[in-house]
Specification:
The structure holds 3 protein chains of 3 kinds. Chain A is α/β, with parallel strands linked by helices. In chain A, strand 2 and strand 3 form a beta hairpin. The radius of gyration of chain A is 24 Å and the shape is globular. In chain A, about 40% of the residues are buried. In chain B, helix 3 runs antiparallel to helix 11, helix 5 runs antiparallel to helix 11 and helix 12 packs parallel to helix 14. By secondary structure, chain B is mainly α. By secondary structure, chain C is an alpha/beta fold. In chain C, about 30% of the residues lie in helices and about 30% in strands. In chain C, helix 3 runs parallel beside helix 5. The radius of gyration of chain C is 19 Å and the shape is globular. In chain C, about 45% of the residues are buried. Classes of the chains: A alpha/beta, B mainly alpha, C alpha/beta.
Chain lengths: ~325, ~325, ~260
């Protein structure tokens, strides 16, 4: 007879309400949870060690001047070398990898490194990215007493913060004074000069063989353009976190930007074909202001797809030149 | 009659022995070479030597997760194939995979700072989705076909959500793919703690109910005639299957192959009687997942392949081979 | 004995059987007949507790069904359905052993007496020579004997059968019906069966229940039911009734359709 009681609970009318209730319950189960408050900051520092809150908010104590360092992402390896350090192992990922790091041994591909290999190398510090595969690796390393930090590198801000953190570990004040100050100095100078220019509305198209999307301010290039004073009408819908948004050509026409920046992700020929098919061959494209004034620009990969790192001034200069031709010749 | 009994016991013992072998193989395999004697010594030392760390904190939890997840998913699939009377039933059908997937992906992509919620979130998502599908397909009782269709609809809905999220956050996609394929990389003791209560508890309970499932195979009307409370039992079995699958999927990811194919292989080897099929599926699931995970670590070392790929690549042809040989056919 | 009191069953706006009140006495053979869609199977399933009436009460020995624990009920009444699914590797004997389920303890293991009862069922239904073969290799008639043997092993007082002869050839139909009659005579097993063949009903049943359009049309002996009047009314057939002196029952010869 239990069937009858269940029948009374789940009638046809109830069903919709119950289902909605369940869905709500699923969402609300997050209500009581909190995110760690401090991310990617140095908590405290002594003469020979410091405590760092990494990208997941975990506090990690690291001894200064670590000799055996493993970097699981080549961007961080690059920054680490910039700060005067060296690495003993890396992953198969080689974009942006400094020459000297090429000879280091690998612990596997970037998305599935071998924890065992890492542990057996007895590192003093392991630098990981923020995605979930690395998060699990970090968990095991931490459980075994290794200093492991997850880093987040989205844009120029992160660049300066990470570099500062690395410099405190390597203690190379000379690099800070000579190299880093020079980079940030040049970037600030470019940004200052832009203030006098006429502001533009811009959009950035990320072209892949399969689709074309618009980048938001959160992405690398978007952030740089924003600093240079350009206005990006495409915003990310969820909590401001997403880096790209699918947008139709019609919408682009409606926005009618002053300038369009284009970057290719993936096979260059296929991307070109995609761009040709979806944009260049359409009549609406020709009607865009930006196209008529010839203000659409292709961005080179090594500066704008991969992190420019020590070439930030160059990258900023290129963008500024496109945005304010009257200021920068 | 007696020969059938002894044959079944023999098969179970053989599987158990092979399992033990797989465990030993798994613990002794990895990126660094450690001899068997050194392995045994780490069980007695309490030191913090490198070998101890590797064996105790890396290989042992991983092997245990492989065994427990293999057991849970295989038994879950066996339950569902009986309750739904459908050879294509697997934990995916009752929404466990899609529920766990959508929750895990949602957290990974939209709320990456709440990473510690991924496992419990996936578990809750899996259970709530099963309850949702159960509600949706209730009409004076559960007709298995309705539940399968509701499961398909809900899965499609959640898949669409996942795809949508991946478009907006392309830089966070590869973590998602990792989860969807299913892998045991970097399994920790916390993962073991997540799975073992459900795995062992549900397995014990389900073996007590095995004969009832045998009778339910004969059809609802026959089962009622023999005095079974069919709807209640169906609910209990589905709940157990959901618990088993949810606890594994939330830790290991969406390993589709185990729940679907392992019970069939077990049925071909050991027969359809659930009193034997449950332990056989459990042992076979443990065996296969542990072996495949070991292989996944070795094949492209030091790269750690997701085990789901290896299982599908090896398991599917093996299953087809067994089908063609037609040793005992499969359940209707 | 089984008693139904104004039993109605159907779905929201559509009733399959309405207000059916009848009494099934022990140890007799009953047949339920009626045109297609009249509700015969539905009535049988309500009597077997497979379906639950929307209104009205079915009771066994004056106790209403819902006051009898499901397990106890299974020791008193068994039903043999039309549709069967069986895994391919169950043997005939395995299946018959399931019939003992209501009598087994928690762990479901067969005691010596359970085995003896299974042996007995095997013997009565004459399936000794294939009891260890897989179900799926048996013929339709052999399979039906196995299912009846399973119901027999349940050791109930009454057996309800839903169209037990429908998919069998005439030799096997005859064999099954003779076996059913033997079970009733030798073991006092009450039988209620839904039959399509009216002549079979006339020959083997002691009482016939006629259902038309979901209502109880009439209940009586074969002589009372197999009449030109009844068959014309219920089945819309003009018939000629003949007496089978050897088997002491009427049978009908169809003449023409009345519609």
């Amino acid at each position: 007879m239990k069937t009858k009681t269940i029948n009374k609970i789940i009638t046809k009318k109830n069903r919709a309400a119950l289902s909605a209730g369940l869905m709500l319950l699923i969402v609300l189960s997050f209500a009581g949870c909190s995110a760690p408050s401090e991310l990617s900051v140095i908590i405290s520092e002594t003469a020979d060690s410091l405590v760092y809150a990494d990208a997941f908010g975990e506090h990690v104590r690291i001894k200064k001047k670590p000799g055996r360092v493993i970097a699981l992402s080549s961007s961080f390896a690059d920054l680490w070398y910039l700060a005067g350090g060296t690495i003993i192992a890396r992953t198969d990922d080689t974009t942006n990898l400094p020459e000297e790091a090429l000879e280091a041994q690998t612990v596997g591909p970037i998305i599935s490194p071998s924890v065992e290999k890492i542990v057996s190398l007895k590192p003093d510090l392991v630098i990981l990215g923020k995605f979930s595969a690395h998060r699990k690796v970090k968990q095991i390393l931490r459980e075994n007493g290794f200093a492991a930090v997850s880093m987040n590198y989205y844009n120029y801000d992160d660049f300066t913060k990470i570099l500062d953190f690395f410099l405190r570990l390597t203690g190379r004040e000379d690099i800070r004074l000579n190299v880093v100050k020079k980079i940030t100095g040049q970037v600030n100078e470019i940004i200052a000069r832009c203030r006098s220019g006429k502001k533009s509305r811009v959009i950035m198209l990320s072209v892949s063989p399969a689709a074309i999307h618009c980048q938001t301010d959160r992405g690398l290039v978007g952030d740089m353009l924003c600093r240079l004073g350009a206005v990006n009408p495409v915003q990310s819908p969820f909590r401001g976190e997403s880096t790209q948004v699918p947008v139709s050509i019609e919408k682009v026409l409606q926005i009618n930007p002053d300038a369009i920046f284009i970057s290719f992700h993936g096979d260059i020929e296929k991307c070109r074909i995609r761009l040709e098919r979806d944009c260049l061959s359409t009549p609406t494209w020709g009607a865009l202001d930006a196209v008529q004034k010839n203000r659409f620009f292709f961005l080179p990969r090594e500066l704008f797809l991969h992190r420019p790192n020590h070439r930030y001034p160059e990258a900023f200069r290129i963008l500024a030149g496109h945005l304010y031709p009257e200021v920068f010749h | 009659m007696n020969t059938q009994y002894t044959r079944r016991i023999f098969i179970l013992l053989l599987l158990a022995f092979l399992c033990f072998g797989a465990v030993v193989l798994s613990i002794s395999t990895g990126a660094s070479k450690i001899s068997v004697r050194e392995i045994i010594s780490t069980f007695f030392s309490d030191g913090h030597t490198l070998n101890y760390q590797i064996i105790r904190n890396i290989r042992l939890p991983r092997t245990l997760v492989a065994m427990l997840a293999g057991l849970s998913l295989a038994v879950s699939g066996a339950i569902l194939q009986g309750v739904m009377r459908n050879p294509l039933a697997s934990p995916n059908i009752i929404g466990v995979s899609s529920g766990a997937g959508v929750m895990a992906v949602f957290i990974m992509i939209v709320l990456p700072d709440y990473f510690y919620l991924i496992t419990p979130g996936a578990f809750i998502g899996a259970m709530l989705t099963t309850i949702l599908i159960y509600f949706l397909s209730w009409q004076n009782g559960i007709r298995p076909l309705r539940m399968i269709l509701a499961g398909v609809a809900v899965s499609s809905f959640f898949s669409a959500i996942i795809s949508g999220l991946m478009i907006f956050y392309p830089d966070r996609v590869h973590g998602v793919i990792d989860f969807m394929v299913g892998g045991l990389a970097a399994s920790t003791w916390r993962d073991v703690e997540m799975i073992w209560p459900y795995a062992l508890g549900c397995f014990a309970v389900v073996n007590l109910l095995a004969n009832k499932l045998n009778i339910m195979l004969l059809g609802d009307e026959t089962a009622v005639s023999l005095g079974l409370r069919v709807e209640i039992l169906r609910m209990i079995f589905i709940a157990i299957a959901a618990l088993l699958a949810a606890s594994s999927v939330s830790v290991v990811g969406l390993l589709g192959f185990v729940g679907l194919i392992v019970p069939h292989i077990a049925r071909i080897i050991a027969g359809s009687d659930y009193r034997v099929l449950f332990p056989a599926s459990a042992l076979l699931g443990m065996l296969l997942l542990t072996l495949c995970d070991t292989l996944a670590r070795v094949v492209l070392s030091p790269a750690d392949l997701p085990v789901g790929i290896i299982m599908a690549l090896l398991g599917a042809p093996f299953f087809l081979y067994l089908l063609r040989k037609g040793l005992q056919g499969h359940a209707a | 004995m089984l008693h139904s009191d104004k039993v109605t069953f159907g779905y929201k706006n559509f009733k399959i059987i309405r207000d059916i009140s009848l009494t099934i006495e022990r140890s007799k053979i009953y047949a339920i007949i009626g045109p297609n869609g009249s509700g015969k199977s539905t009535l049988l399933k309500n009597l077997a507790r497979i379906l639950h009436p929307q209104s009205g009460v079915v009771s066994l020995d004056t106790i209403p069904f819902n006051k009898i624990p499901v397990n106890e009920f299974a020791k008193k009444i068994a039903i043999l359905s039309q549709i069967h699914n069986v895994p391919e590797d169950f043997t005939a004997r395995d299946l018959i052993s399931f019939g003992r389920y209501p009598h087994l303890g928690w762990f479901g293991r067969l005691a010596k007496e359970d085995d003896e009862i299974v042996d007995w069922a095997v013997h009565v239904m004459r399936i000794g020579y294939f009891q260890h073969r897989n179900i799926t290799v048996l013929s339709g008639g052999e399979r039906q004997r196995v299912w009846i043997a399973m119901a027999l092993a349940q050791k109930t007082a009454m057996l309800l059968l839903d169209e037990p002869t429908t998919f069998l050839d005439i030799a096997h139909q005859f064999e099954i019906l003779e076996l059913i009659r033997k079970l009733n005579k030798n073991f006092n097993l009450g039988i209620v069966m839904v039959l399509h063949d009216l002549n079979q009903a006339a020959r083997y049943a002691e009482r016939i229940i006629v259902i038309k359009d979901g209502l109880l049309y009439r209940e009586g002996t074969p002589d009372e039911i197999i009449t030109e009047q009844t068959l014309g009314d219920v089945f819309r057939m003009r018939v000629r009734i003949v007496r089978d002196e050897m088997h002491h029952c009427p049978y009908f010869i169809p003449m023409e359709s009345l519609d």
